[in-house]
UniProtKB/TrEMBL annotation:
Residues 1-26 form the signal peptide. It comes from the Bacteria. It comes from Nitrincola nitratireducens. This is Tripartite tricarboxylate transporter family receptor. Keywords: Receptor, Signal. The keyword Endoplasmic reticulum does not apply. Belongs to the UPF0065 (bug) family. PANTHER family: BLR1237 PROTEIN, TRICARBOXYLATE-BINDING PROTEIN.
Length: 315
């Protein structure tokens, strides 16, 4: 009898983690889920994350909402997620900078082990844009123009990955930037008012003036040419610089795998919708899904790659 009891006890221990995992996903979400977007509303990560939140509510019946918490280049919102429980009730929608350059620079109150990726879903259509009547159409022509004329750059801050990429490209191409400034939003008004000669921004923020013909794209910081501007060569084509910027869903480290898998399933269902395809076609954004081990490897790779860019910005 004692031997049987002991055997049953050992067997129970063996299946306990499995039962706990099943229980976690069966009970998730237990209460309203918050998706934290550490930027103002309106850009692509915000729009797509709202669709994911809507899908979660649709599938589970539990309220899910997006909380916009800008500040500190994304650190303020990321800090909220870092303080949350590891239960998937708070999910961060994070740009690459939050997991890379901010940690390297030492201004993040968390480290590379604080978060775990659920999945990467967006290749930002970052571009360098100028007024349509500017006498240059690519980086080589901009470099030539800058020899005799002052160029001012509008960007999202020195610790933003696209900013570092832009400055590196400028140095490589011989583009002389006379002045630069950081803006919360680099949009049509930034160029129209003359606050900047060129801006580093996303297509989503300048769609209206691209459509009207008031603004043009000089290059895109993307893996592939933009579907909305296939004639414009990417930064990689013009300079050889291949680094791009992504956005993904992240949770506090230690969140049960089953919970992450459920969030991932819901996210992929949202991304496989006509609405998301329309956004991709309209903005040129690369919308896809990289999950699991592949997502972890991508984050780790970019964590190492951004060291060089940060060293360049700090020299």
């Amino acid at each position: 009898m004692k031997k049987i009891t002991k055997t049953l006890f050992v067997a129970t221990l063996a299946i306990s983690p499995l039962l706990a995992s099943v229980s976690a996903v069966a009970d998730y979400p237990k209460r309203p889920v918050s998706f934290v977007v550490p930027w103002p509303p309106g850009d692509l990560e915000d729009i797509v994350t709202r669709m994911i939140a809507d899908e979660m509510h649709k599938q589970t019946g539990v309220p899910a909402s997006v909380i916009n918490k800008p500040g500190g280049g994304g650190i303020v919102g990321a800090l909220d997620v870092s303080r949350a429980r590891a239960d998937g009730q708070m999910v961060g929608s994070f740009v690459a900078d939050i997991l890379t350059t901010h940690i390297h620079s030492g201004n993040a109150p968390y480290d590379q082990n604080t978060f775990e990726p659920v999945g990467i879903f967006l290749d930002y259509p970052f571009v360098i844009a100028a007024n349509a009547d500017a006498p240059y159409n690519n980086l080589a022509e901009l470099a030539e123009y800058s020899k005799e004329n002052n160029i001012s750059l509008g960007h999202f801050g020195y610790q933003a990955l696209p900013t570092a990429i832009t400055f590196k490209a400028a140095e490589q191409q011989g583009i002389r930037i006379a002045s630069d400034a950081a803006f919360d939003e680099n949009n049509c008004a930034t160029l129209a008012t003359g606050d900047a000669t060129i801006i580093n921004t996303t297509t989503q923020l300048i769609l209206s003036c691209l459509s009207s013909g008031e603004v043009k794209i000089l290059t895109s910081l993307t893996h592939e040419r933009l579907s909305i501007a296939p004639e414009i060569a990417t930064l990689a084509e013009q300079t050889g610089i291949t680094q791009t910027t992504w956005n993904g869903l992240f949770v506090k480290a230690g969140t049960p795998e089953s919970v992450k898998e459920k969030i991932a399933d819901i996210a992929q269902a949202a991304l496989n919708s006509d609405r998301v395809r329309d956004i991709s076609n309209t903005t040129g954004a690369g919308i896809y899904w990289i999950g699991g081990r592949e997502a972890e490897e991508l984050v780790a790779k970019d964590f190492e790659n951004t060291k060089e860019l940060l060293e360049y910005m700090n020299k």
